[in-house]
Design a protein that fits this description.
With 548 residues, the chain is an all-alpha fold. Among the domains are: 155 residues, no CATH class; 107 residues, no CATH class; 55 residues, Arc Repressor Mutant, subunit A (Orthogonal Bundle), CATH 1.10.10. Helices cover 67% and strands 0% of the residues. It has 29 helices and no strands. Helix 3 packs across helix 5 and helix 15 runs antiparallel to helix 16. The two termini are 41 Å apart. 52% of the residues are buried.
């Protein structure tokens, strides 16, 4: 990259764009990167519109500059509709690039075409193809296999960009190890300010988000500092590449019980409906805040609105988006006292490990201590869990041991939970406990009450949970058969069992729901979330699994 003293002036840029020379346009974009569409969006769009369509199509850097200029204009106008159109245009362009990558031969174009293709596949949720295209582009531009190695243009002119976009795709796929490697690499590859460093703050921001989500609040702060020290960027670029930093700060504030700061940060981030790639993390952070300090019912409404907006009413549990959405729903339901709905969600989406913690708490809060302890013990032995979930399971063990009279074991489990904190201010898992139980466990463990110091000033107190309703898999099938209008005889024929068996199961369902008639049973089951519409498995099959 040229030295700052060698960079083109504003007059040089306008003259180059007005010249109609695509070579001069590309040189300017290579030198200035995001700063070209950021400062000269109208001129960039005018220059691109003045070129033949075939010329723009054959030159990925021209097309990319125009795409960024469209996005910049939408942000400046606050036009969400225009931003959506810009996203659709970016996706369509990237998909075209991806189909013809092998034919790209001009120096500097392969890195741009390949990276835009990675972004396009990520935007449409195909993280597996995004990684294949990214790895192939990386090999070609780095090693020169079959194509020219990048020198002073293309990938080298945007150092770290390809690695950063691949890393974000891996993060959204739930491939956390690969995401960490790629984002760390992107941060190291990025050049110096003012224009070669743009990948560095974005990569650090997404590493801060990943580590905050996993509960490593101290490491998240380290990456936030790295993002700040990487060099300043304009607000529109931060909105495009650095939103992860703000979400990481909000998650940290929630985990540390700072309700005031968390509310301020979430307000600044905006609702999940306004975000693109990172909307599931925004929804997760907002749900955790509402569950702990706000209104769980309002949180459920906001979450449902975001799911409508992004087409996630029937989430794929094998993806990170699905896991975040389901985790957010379970967190809010638990704080709303809807333990039966939590258990139903955990049964329905058994692939989602994090829902086991919510199910364990539902059992514990309902006084079913043995089942709660069993679920948590199994999770601690067999599952890879974030720090907050590890703390939560040890707290379940502490509470159930206390209720069972095993006071020494209760103190040991509580002490373990306290010791797992990444910072002394990490208090979110302890907010689940009633204050008297928390104080008793702290005394048994001979450690300070985690909530006596720190910033916790507001705390949501959940309503007393209703008795849980446990239906066996066959009882759930019988219930759904009743909901479709089948008689006991018809249900027996469908299941291939005796009519007396079905009638026994119907009586069991009525008893558990505390009703005596079919209409009452269906109404109560609907209220408890036991009769939700089944997932559209044909839609799930069309998706690419991202995390299992």
């Amino acid at each position: 990259m040229p030295r700052p003293s060698d960079l083109p002036t504003g007059a040089d840029v306008r003259a180059g764009l007005a010249s109609g020379d695509p070579d001069r346009f590309e040189v300017l974009f290579d030198a200035l990167w995001y700063d070209l569409p950021g400062r000269f969006a109208p001129e960039v769009l005018s220059a691109v519109q003045g070129l033949p369509a075939a010329t723009v199509e054959a030159r990925p850097r021209l097309a990319h500059a125009a795409l960024l200029a469209h996005h910049r204009t939408g942000l400046a106008d606050g036009d969400l509709r225009q931003l959506r159109r810009a996203r659709q245009l970016y996706t369509a362009t990237g998909l075209r690039f991806g189909r013809r990558l092998a034919s790209v031969t001009r120096p500097g174009d392969l890195g741009t075409a390949g990276t835009v293709a990675v972004v396009a596949e990520r935007l449409r949720g195909d993280h597996e193809r995004a990684e294949r295209l990214g790895a192939w582009t990386d090999a070609q531009t780095t090693l020169g296999t079959g194509h020219q190695a990048a020198s002073g243009t293309g990938a080298a002119a945007r150092p770290g960009w390809l690695s950063a976009e691949r890393g974000l795709a891996a993060l959204l796929a739930g491939a956390f190890d690969r995401a960490t490697r790629l984002l760390t690499r992107a941060h190291a590859e990025a050049g110096d300010p003012p224009h070669a460093h743009f990948a560095a703050p974005g990569a650090a921001a997404h590493l801060a988000l990943l580590t905050a989500y996993r509960g490593h609040l101290d490491l998240s702060r380290t990456w936030l500092t790295a993002a700040e020290e990487s060099g300043t960027v304009d607000a529109w670029i931060t909105r495009l590449t650095g939103a992860g930093a703000e979400i990481a700060r909000a998650l940290t504030a929630v985990h540390e019980g700072d309700a005031t700061r968390a509310a301020q940060l979430l307000h600044r981030i905006g609702p999940a409906t306004e975000h693109l790639d990172l909307w599931p993390f925004v929804a997760h952070a907002a749900a955790t805040y509402e569950a702990s300090f706000g209104d769980p019912q309002r949180g459920l409404r906001l979450l449902d609105r975001a799911r409508h907006e992004h087409g996630a009413l029937h989430p794929d549990p094998t993806t990170l988006t699905g896991e975040l959405v389901l985790r957010a729903e379970a967190t809010l339901l638990l704080r709303a006292g809807a333990g039966t709905r939590v258990l139903h969600l955990a049964d329905r989406y058994a692939e989602v490990d994090s829902l086991v913690l919510h199910a364990a708490w539902a059992h514990a809060l309902a006084g079913e201590h043995h089942e709660a302890a069993r679920l948590s013990a199994e999770a601690l032995q067999h599952r890879d869990l974030p720090v907050g979930d590890l703390m939560g399971h040890h707290l379940v063990q502490a509470v159930t041991a206390l209720r069972s009279g095993q006071r020494e074991r209760a103190g040991d489990s509580f002490r373990t939970a306290v010791g797992l904190r990444s910072t002394p201010a990490h208090v979110l898992p302890f907010l689940t406990l009633p204050r008297d139980v928390l104080g008793e466990l702290a005394a048994l463990a001979r450690v300070p009450d985690p909530l006596r110091t720190g910033t916790v000033t507001v705390r949501h107190v959940p309503p007393p949970p209703e008795p849980l309703v446990h239906l066996t898999p066959r009882e759930r099938e019988v219930l759904r058969a009743l909901a479709t209008g089948l008689t006991a005889e018809q249900a027996a024929a469908r299941f291939g069992v005796a009519v007396t068996t079905v009638r026994t199961q119907i009586r069991s369902v009525y008893r558990k729901l505390r009703v005596s008639r079919r209409r009452e049973a269906l109404a109560r089951a609907q209220e408890l979330g036991l009769l939700r519409v089944p997932r559209h498995t044909h839609d799930d099959a069309a998706r690419t699994p991202g995390r299992r």
